[in-house]
Every structure is written in structure tokens, then in C-alpha cells.
Design a protein that fits this description.
- There is one protein chain.
- This protein is α+β, with helices and mostly antiparallel strands.
- β7 (214-216) and β8 form a beta hairpin.
- Helix content is 41%, strand content 22%.
- 33% of the residues are buried.
- It has a 5-stranded mixed barrel with strand order 1-2-3-5-4.
- It folds into 2 domains: 7-109, Nucleic acid-binding proteins (OB fold (Dihydrolipoamide Acetyltransferase, E2P)), CATH 2.40.50; 120-302, Hypothetical protein af1432, CATH 1.10.3210.
- The chain has helices at 58-66, 120-133, 137-147, 150-158, 172-190, 196-205, 210-213, 224-228, 231-245, 251-262, 279-302, and strands at 15-31, 34-43, 46-53, 73-83, 86-91, 98-102, 214-216, 220-222, 310-313, 317-320.
- It binds fe (ii) ion (2 copies).
- One fe (ii) ion is lined by residues 207, 231, 264-265.
Length: 322
């Protein structure tokens, strides 16, 4: 079965018979009509709360609940209701609604995880042309430690840039990295004192930790390593391992590369264990912030979930939609 409608296209008051991926199992418990449970489900159009209003057969409802896990794909027959200004899916089996867990092979993964709208091969070609222009021999070697490895390149080109924010689709990391690289190239033109080789290598490396931070199934999720350690520290460790592998690699340059990765979120508040401490690190963190802020706002504007002139978003605040 293929999906026919995305979450951002749902309208209050309508019925739905479609497929959704389980992002979060919230809770199960009693209510006056019997047993209810609550899930968050998603698709490339966003995510939505799903409430199952079961009858008094709590054993049967518990069985449905136990059969659902994070990442399960469900066929949901229900209604779209508005509650507290947000849309919700309501499944009421006494009115003929139902939830069925699909087996792998009964759905198409492309219905759940979106792909970049850009041409991956073209972006890859662009990234490699930047890598070829790096003329510091140590940085060249550090780059080829990763980018001469076909499996690394394949994973890098498929990795999303985030779970729910900017470029949360396959190929998103490549897209985001290239935009950060381009911003850094323009900084180098405006500020010729910046070390171009160092800054561009840092830009290419700054989010490689996301390869171990994210796991893509029917949803984009975090690995345990990603949750416990985070992509900046994972990325700095990957860079450290690469520099140690290259015989004679200058330890100061290795520290600078690790610092570029660790400080790329700019402030401790945004998850950087170190704030930028040299000009290239400031430039990289500002390029990263520029891209994430602009892309997050574009994402809210293109997917407003409201017909009002303003949208409110947890991470970017108020967005003027006109
Ligand atoms: Fe990052
Ligand atoms: Fe980034």
C-alpha cells in the first residue's frame, strides 16, 4: 500500500485511511469509555498526535499497543480532529476505525523518509571539487582518509542533516555541508586573512558525527551514541582518529580541526562544548548558524500548518508567512 496524503495536507473534520510511521509511543490508560492510547506518528509532511479511543476490551487494546513499536508503519483508519489549535488523528473502533501494523514489504520506505530535492550526484561533484582545491598536504590527507572511502561517501551523501529541523531528509547532510562550505568560501573572499584550507576542511568535517548520530528506518531517529555523546563530540573523535592514523600529522593542526568541529554550534547553549577560539572557528560557527536559521525559517514558511498570517514555531519563534 502506498501513501496518498501527507500530514501537512490533512484537514480538520475529514476522514483518513492512510499509512503513518510511529515516532513515539506515549501512553496507554483508562478513560470513561474503556482504554485509550496515545502515539506520535509522522511522514515527510510532519508529525501528528494519534489518539486511539478503545472500548472496554482492555486485553485486545493492550495487544494492539504491544504490537506497535517506534518505527512501526501503521495503516490508520480514523478522523482528523482539531484540539487546542492543532490537528490530531482520532481512531474510534466503535465507529469502524482501526489501526493495523504493516509488515516490512507492505509499504514503500520512500513514502516515509523524504529525499533531498537537489541532485545528489551534482552536489557530490561540487564537494569533491572543493576537496581537490585544498592544497595543504596534511589537510588533503585528512580529507582523503574519509572521502577516498566509498562506503563513507555513500553514507555521507545519504545522511539527513537533522531529525525534525532543516534538511531532515536523505541527502540533507550533503546539502547543508555544501551551503556551509559556500558561506565559508565567501568569508574567505571578504576576509583574506582567514586560513582557507583550514576553514573549508573544518566546514566539510563539521557534521560528520551525524553519520553515527542518526539512524534511518521508517523515521529518522537518534542512535544511543548520538543521544549520549552527540554529533560534535563523535565528529571530533572521528577527526582525531583520522589524524592519529596519518603518520606525522601535526598535533596542533589536529587540535585545530577538532576545535572547529566541537565549536561549530557557536555556544554551549546550542550544544558546543567549546566556544570558537580562533577566527576560522568563528567563521564556521556563523556559517552553520546562518544556514540552520534560514533553512528552519524557510521550512516553517513552506509548511505553515495554519491559514493565519503568522506561524509560531518552538525553535525559530514567530514567522511572518505573507
Ligand atoms: Fe552540527
Ligand atoms: Fe551543521
Amino acid at each position: 500500500m502506498r501513501k496518498t496524503i501527507k500530514i501537512n495536507e490533512l484537514k480538520a473534520g475529514g476522514t483518513v485511511d492512510d499509512l503513518f510511521a510511529v515516532r513515539l509511543k506515549k501512553s496507554i490508560g483508562p478513560y470513561k469509555g474503556g482504554t485509550t492510547f496515545h502515539l506520535w506518528v509522522s511522514d515527510p509532511g510532519g508529525d501528528i498526535s494519534l489518539k486511539y479511543w478503545g472500548d472496554k476490551d482492555n486485553v485486545a487494546i493492550q495487544k494492539i499497543w504491544d504490537g506497535i513499536s517506534k518505527g512501526s508503519v501503521l495503516r490508520v483508519k480514523g478522523r482528523v480532529n482539531e484540539y487546542n489549535g492543532s490537528l490530531e488523528l482520532h481512531v474510534n473502533p466503535t465507529s469502524g476505525d482501526s489501526i493495523t501494523v504493516l509488515d516490512e514489504g507492505d509499504f514503500d520506505i520512500r513514502d516515509f523518509v523524504a529525499s533531498t530535492p537537489m541532485d545528489i550526484e551534482q552536489m557530490k561533484g561540487h564537494l569533491f571539487s572543493v576537496i581537490r582545491k585544498i592544497d595543504d598536504p596534511w589537510l588533503k590527507e585528512a580529507l582523503s582518509y574519509f572521502f577516498a572511502d566509498e562506503e563513507f561517501v555513500r553514507n555521507f551523501c545519504e545522511c539527513p542533516a537533522s531529525i525534525t529541523h532543516h534538511a531532515n531528509w536523505l541527502g540533507g547532510l550533503l546539502e547543508h555541508t555544501l551551503r556551509v562550505v559556500k558561506l565559508c568560501e565567501s568569508y574567505c573572499q571578504i576576509y583574506p586573512d582567514l586560513d582557507r584550507n583550514l576553514l573549508l576542511t573544518g566546514a566539510i568535517f563539521h557534521d560528520i558525527g551525524k553519520l553515527r548520530d542518526y539512524k534511518v528506518t521508517s523515521i529518522i531517529g537518534s542512535t544511543d551514541e548520538g543521544r549520549l555523546i552527540g554529533h560534535l563530540v563523535i565528529g571530533a573523535e572521528m577527526v582525531h582518529d583520522a589524524c592519529r592514523f596519518i603518520e606525522g600529522f601535526p598535533s596542533e593542526l589536529s587540535m585545530k580541526l577538532q576545535h572547529l568541529v566541537l565549536s561549530s554550534h557557536g555556544t554551549t547553549e546550542f550544544g558546543s562544548p567549546k566556544v570558537p577560539m580562533f577566527p576560522e572557528a568563528v567563521a564556521l560557527s556563523l556559517a552553520d548558524l546562518t544556514d540552520t536559521r534560514i533553512e528552519d525559517m524557510i521550512m516553517v514558511k513552506s509548511n505553515p500548518n495554519t491559514e493565519e498570517d503568522w506561524a509560531q514555531n518552538k525553535s525559530v519563534g514567530s514567522v511572518y508567512l505573507r
